[in-house]
Amino acid sequence: MDDVDAVTRVVLTASRVLVAVSARSLAEVEERVTLPQFRMLVVLSTRGATKLVGLADLLEVAPSTAMRMVDRLIAAGLAERRSAPDDRRATLLQLTDQGRRTVEDVTARRRQEIASIVQRLAPEQRTALIAALGDFNEAGGEPLAPPLDVDTGLYPLGWGDTATAG
Questions:
Q1: If you ran DSSP here, which 8-state letter would residue 5 be given?
Q2: Side by side, which strands form the sheet with 79-84?
Q3: Which residues contact 51 (CB under 8 A, 6 or more apart)?
Q4: Which of 36, 164, 44, 21 is CA-nearest to residue 106?
Q5: Phi/psi at 126 (nearest 5 deg)?
């Protein structure tokens, strides 16, 4: 077995752990929000008001798929449409206060569960994991999630916004 296959197997296994964590973190809102819809909420949270086509591009889905997702989020009270200030013909999509709280709450639960897993690792394992996953994230084009903002208590994910990554 070559090292690419070994790494792939380990990453696939880790992805199962992370998907399980994600599913559990969504448990309280699962009747209203699916995992793909939550991803849309996170993108809106990090990007702010966004046009549908831009949102579809960021999520790598067809605009019609994005529109169906947006319609469901609007019906659930998590997102809303508004006219663009510079072009009243253009429509922007944004989170409602309830949508913002949903992202914050789900992300806080996810962060707590991941932290409890990481705490089981020895300090040298944590250091190695930081380096390995940092390289993996960079290779995959995903920016580092921002740290916990201790002043506000917010737990942003940082998905899809390389301009604010750090």
A1: H
A2: 50-51, 87-95, 79-84
A3: 84, 90, 91, 92, 93
A4: 21
A5: -65, -45
For the chain, the helix, strand and coil percentages under 3-state DSSP, each to the nearest 5: 60, 10, 25
Are the CB atoms for 94 and 44 separated by under 8 Å? yes
From CA 161, how far away is CA 139, in angstroms rounded?
16
CA dist 108 to 2, 104, 105, 141, 147, Å? 38, 6, 5, 24, 12
- Residue 147 CA to residue 166 CA, distance in Å, equals 9
Phi first, then psi: give them for residue 80, nearest 5 degrees: -150, 160
**CA torsion angle 140 94 48 42 (round to 10):** -30
Instruction: Give the three-state DSSP class for 91.
Output: strand
Separation of CA 60 from chain center: 14
Q: How many CB atoms lie within 10 A of CB 50?
A: 19
Structure tokens at 29: 């809102």
Residue-wise pLDDT for 104-136, tens only, equals 999 999 999 999 999 999 999 999 999 999 899
Supply the pTM of this predicted model.
Answer: 0.75
